[in-house]
């Protein structure tokens, strides 16, 4: 069984990453080659992905690989192929819908700038419908079959949250008992509204000024908004925002490292249950060591924005808090009255970080247009 | 120029760099903790129990388990020190009866961590040897030694403490290279009291120290000889003293040298005797077909008393004494060279040649012994193109010969990946080292030195500008390894099923023996023709 995950990882995810590098660094200015190597290593050594796919056992690498393929196709301006790949990814794991707003807004933004917007939108729509038809072929024969599949895909009866995930609903449920105040129906509606509101700024920005960097940021922001506000989110869903974050690793350096740290940290209770602590430590060690590889990524400092002092103080504080909690969680037994006390504290801390990070990336996405517009103008002049 | 830069960078920088390599290796080792453990695992656990629970006088007499203590006393003391930690973590580990075949998580984690921690000795030895070299050269050596797949397979999966012992050897060599011969000799004596297998190189040390340290005029030389002699005696006294006092020396020696074990191990190490045995079996088969009446030997090669019945049907007998004389004989040229011109820089080569001779012609050699000379040769691998080519081949052959140690299915992708990655890394390192010197940028600024040039060189090498090439014979041989592996894994079960299960192993032995034989001849040639 492990072989299937390993082979699917190698066959789908790795080529997608290679394709990303070929496409991305062909368009944007080529940094030093050691930078490229560093970036590739950081994407591939993603400890969360390795631990979840190969430790806990899942097949995330297939849907993530397909999504990555779709992203690369968008970067290479092959929108139709991008749509096909993304639909395939969506049909493999419906969690890829986290990225849907970003794809939608970016492609719509690009279509609107073309000569004949309606035709472009129609083309994309047809491709999407066609892909869905092919994949759902065995179930199209009757409405009931489709509904059955859909019901299984969206298990709404499980409730708005399960376990302790660093989600808005779960975290605020410490104070506001959502499940008691609202019915399941209204909770569904509430979460939908919250999610849409959260990813709206990013979508608007992309429709207004689509750009490649903006698209990557859009992916990050929309997946984060889904993670934070959606219905029935699992801890493992942090993998989805992590993918575009790794693609933007050269942009986001220190905040990215903190994000990876907290993503791993949020999965600590899950990994403890699976007895994966030693691989957790080893992979985190590998990631940190490779991140700080001698000679890797030094030149990216030129592109890197200077982090203001309060931000770096905040980041150090968050690191220390999480380290302390690591030790406490692994050694101390929780009190009888609150057996899940430590999970709750971990969740709270992770949530605070994720909210701050999501705000930060949203702000950065909105700060982009001024740079990309001027670059587009330069290209037009050339 | 580079030496000045190193001083400017400072020793701290080198330390952080080597720690980075050690860190990566440690992370990989941590991930390998749940892998296959051989009987060596139980052996060392039992030794922890013996040294902890029994008094010193019983250590070499105990018969509770078939895994008796067969290393010299310093190793027993080392296990004794470890056993305190083991006892603290889980008393059952050190219990002599209840701990037999104890396989719980605590034991596994404790033992594996002890190997990882003892690798710090290897780290220190390599650091001491390479701290004054230029950047690219020392990084190459670190990659070849600290990330050696052979060490990973033998130490961290099969379970042994070779890293620690090789570290002591490297410490000794580093002192010799700094011309501090007394310290070098001291560490070698200590090493001998840890594992007597390293004594194969003792003649080299003897000759080198005699000529380099003691041959300095009558009185001074004699005093120096006396000082070295006293030091060696002191070390051995510290190790064997307590047992001499208890009158157990005979027992200790018999435990350390179990000659009843046969000429070859269960899996034939790829040395000269493989050819000898195959010749014997081949001749016997041929003569039987031709109608002669050949007695099938009663004893097997891998066990039984050699004195009573002979395992060879046709060819002359091989006794431990014969193997000993043969090793000394082939070692002779190196000893002569060491005597004529005792240069500190050549010590590593003589020692690795000595271990190669011991491997080729020794009695009851394990394939793991190939690690000794491969790791030592890594020190000199980047010195010249010829060295690099030789090391490339040798390293792959020796790593491949270790494959039969890990016979379980789950380790298969790991060992294959390790070998492939190591080969790729070696190729990159050697290509970078031996690319045509970039004459296009003679004004390389200070910043461009070191890291960036190295990585740029990697990409140049991949682009095909590298000068590191291996000959057609070597390429053919390496391709043959692939064929042998394919046969063993796929074709043999397909065509022959369960018949003749020893044939794949036999093929691996013979094929690797060819490679190691080539290495031995190459090293001999280098030593004899060097000025």
UniProtKB/TrEMBL annotation, chain A:
Q: How does it sit in the membrane?
A: Multi-pass membrane protein
Q: What class of enzyme is it?
A: transferase
Q: Where in the cell is it found?
A: Endoplasmic reticulum membrane
Q: Which UniProt keywords apply?
A: Endoplasmic reticulum, Glycosyltransferase, Membrane, Transferase, Transmembrane, Transmembrane helix
Note the InterPro entries from the entry: Glyco_trans_ALG6/ALG8
Q: What is the protein's major site of localization?
A: endoplasmic reticulum
Decide whether keyword Cell membrane is in the record: no
Per the UniProt record, which residue ranges are transmembrane? 6-24, 36-52, 64-88, 121-140, 190-208, 214-231, 276-293, 305-328, 340-363
GO molecular function annotation: dolichyl pyrophosphate Man9GlcNAc2 alpha-1,3-glucosyltransferase activity
- State the pathway, as annotated in the record: Protein modification; protein glycosylation
Q: Which residues form the signal peptide?
A: none
Q: What is this protein called?
A: Alpha-1,3-glucosyltransferase
From TrEMBL, chain B:
Q: Which family does it belong to?
A: Belongs to the ALG6/ALG8 glucosyltransferase family.
- Tell me what this protein is called: Alpha-1,3-glucosyltransferase
TM spans (from-to): 14-32, 109-127, 139-154, 160-176, 188-210, 222-245, 266-287, 314-334, 346-363, 369-385, 390-407, 413-432, 476-496, 502-521
Pathway where it operates: Protein modification; protein glycosylation
* GO MF assignments: dolichyl pyrophosphate Glc1Man9GlcNAc2 alpha-1,3-glucosyltransferase activity
Keyword annotations: Endoplasmic reticulum, Glycosyltransferase, Membrane, Transferase, Transmembrane, Transmembrane helix
Cellular compartments per GO CC: endoplasmic reticulum membrane
InterPro entries xrefs: Glyco_trans_ALG6/ALG8 (IPR004856)
For this protein, what is the EC number?
2.4.1.-
Q: How does it sit in the membrane?
A: Multi-pass membrane protein
Task: Name where it's found.
Answer: Endoplasmic reticulum membrane
Keyword Transmembrane helix, does the record have it? yes
Instruction: List, alphabetically, the Pfam families matched.
Output: Alg6_Alg8
Which GO terms fall under biological process for this protein?
Answer: protein N-linked glycosylation
Organism expressing this protein natively:
Rhizophora mucronata (Asiatic mangrove)
């Amino acid at each position: 069984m492990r072989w299937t995950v390993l082979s699917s990882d190698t066959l789908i995810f790795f080529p997608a990453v290679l394709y990303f590098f070929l496409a991305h660094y062909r368009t944007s200015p080529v940094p030093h080659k050691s930078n490229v190597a560093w970036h590739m290593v950081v994407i591939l050594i993603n400890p969360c992905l390795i631990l979840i796919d190969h430790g806990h056992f899942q097949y995330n690498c297939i849907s993530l690989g397909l999504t990555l393929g779709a992203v690369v196709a968008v970067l290479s301006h092959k929108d139709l192929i991008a749509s096909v790949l993304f639909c395939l990814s969506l049909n493999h794991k419906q969690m890829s819908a986290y990225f849907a707003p970003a794809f939608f807004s970016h492609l719509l933004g690009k279509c609107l700038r073309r000569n004949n917007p309606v035709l472009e939108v129609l083309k994309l729509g047809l491709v999407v419908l066609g892909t869905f038809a092919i994949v759902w072929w065995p179930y199209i024969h009757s409405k009931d079959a489709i509904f059955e599949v859909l019901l299984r895909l969206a298990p709404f009866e499980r409730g708005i949250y399960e376990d302790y995930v660093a989600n808005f609903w779960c975290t605020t449920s410490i104070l506001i008992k959502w499940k008691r105040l609202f019915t399941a129906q209204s909770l569904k509606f509430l979460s939908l509204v919250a999610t849409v509101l959260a990813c709206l700024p990013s979508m608007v920005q992309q429709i207004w000024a689509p750009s490649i960097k903006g698209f990557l940021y859009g992916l990050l922001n929309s997946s984060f908004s889904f993670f934070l506000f959606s219905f029935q989110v699992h801890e493992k869903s942090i993998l989805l925002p992590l993918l575009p974050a790794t693609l933007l690793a050269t942009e986001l350096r220190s905040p990215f490292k903190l994000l990876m740290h907290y993503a791993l940290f949020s999965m600590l209770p899950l990994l403890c249950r699976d007895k994966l602590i030693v691989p957790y430590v080893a992979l985190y060690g590998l990631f940190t060591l490779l991140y700080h590889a001698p000679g890797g990524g030094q030149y990216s400092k030129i592109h890197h924005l200077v982090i203001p002092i309060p931000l770096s103080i905040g980041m150090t504080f968050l690191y220390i808090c999480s380290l302390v909690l690591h030790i406490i969680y692994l050694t101390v037994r929780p009190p009888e009255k609150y057996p899940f006390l430590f999970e709750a504290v971990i969740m709270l801390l992770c949530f605070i970080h994720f909210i701050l990070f999501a705000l930060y990336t949203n702000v950065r996405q909105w700060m982009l247009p001024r740079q990309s517009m001027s670059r587009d103008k330069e290209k037009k002049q050339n | 120029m580079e030496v000045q830069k190193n001083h400017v960078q400072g020793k701290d920088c080198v330390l952080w760099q080597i720690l980075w390599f050690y860190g990566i290796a440690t992370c990989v080792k941590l991930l390998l903790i749940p892998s296959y453990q051989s009987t060596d695992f139980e052996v060392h656990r039992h030794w922890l129990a013996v040294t902890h629970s029994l008094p010193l006088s019983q250590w070499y007499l105990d018969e509770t388990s078939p895994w008796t203590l067969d290393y010299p006393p310093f190793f027993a003391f080392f296990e004794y020190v470890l056993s305190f930690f083991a006892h603290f973590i889980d008393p059952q580990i050190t219990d002599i009866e209840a701990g037999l075949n104890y396989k719980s998580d605590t034991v596994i984690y404790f033992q594996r961590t002890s190997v990882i921690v003892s690798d710090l000795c290897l780290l220190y030895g390599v650091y001491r040897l390479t701290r004054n070299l230029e950047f690219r050269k020392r990084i190459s050596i670190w990659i070849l030694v600290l990330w050696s797949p052979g060490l990973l397979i033998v130490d961290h999966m099969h379970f042994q403490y070779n890293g620690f012992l090789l570290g002591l050897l490297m410490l000794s060599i580093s002192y010799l290279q700094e011309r501090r011969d007394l310290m070098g000799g001291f560490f070698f004596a200590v090493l001998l009291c840890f594992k007597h297998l390293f004594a194969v190189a003792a003649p080299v040390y003897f000759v080198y120290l005699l000529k380099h340290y003691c041959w300095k005029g009558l009185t001074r030389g004699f005093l120096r000889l006396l000082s070295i002699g006293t030091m060696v005696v002191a070390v051995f006294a510290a190790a064997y003293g307590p047992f001499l006092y208890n009158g157990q020396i005979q027992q200790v020696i018999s435990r350390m040298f179990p000659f009843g074990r046969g000429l070859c191990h269960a899996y034939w190490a790829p040395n000269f005797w493989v050819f000898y045995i195959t010749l014997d079996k081949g001749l016997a088969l041929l003569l039987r077909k031709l109608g002669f009446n050949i007695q099938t030997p009663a004893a097997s090669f891998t066990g039984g008393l050699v004195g009573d019945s002979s395992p060879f049907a046709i060819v002359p007998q091989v006794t431990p004494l014969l193997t000993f004389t043969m090793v000394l004989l082939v070692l002779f040229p190196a000893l002569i060279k060491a005597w004529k011109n005792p240069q500190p820089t050549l010590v590593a080569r003589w020692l690795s040649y000595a271990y190669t001779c011991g491997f080729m012609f020794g009695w009851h050699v394990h394939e793991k012994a190939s690690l000794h000379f491969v790791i030592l040769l890594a020190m000199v691998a980047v010195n010249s193109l010829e060295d690099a080519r030789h090391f490339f081949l040798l390293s792959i052959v020796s790593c491949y010969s270790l494959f039969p140690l890990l016979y379980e299915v789950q380790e298969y992708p790991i060992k294959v990946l390790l070998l492939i990655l190591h080969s790729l890394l070696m190729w990159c390192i050697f290509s970078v080292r031996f690319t045509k010197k970039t004459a296009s940028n003679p004004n390389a600024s200070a910043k461009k030195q070191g890291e960036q040039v190295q990585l740029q060189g990697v990409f140049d090498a991949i682009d095909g500008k590298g000068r590191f090439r291996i000959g057609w014979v070597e390429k053919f041989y390496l391709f043959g390894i692939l064929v042998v592996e394919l046969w063993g894994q796929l074709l043999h079960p397909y065509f022959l099923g369960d018949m003749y299960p020893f044939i794949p192993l036999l093929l691996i032995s013979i094929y690797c023996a060819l490679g190691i034989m080539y290495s031995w001849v190459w090293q001999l040639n280098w030593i004899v023709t060097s000025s």
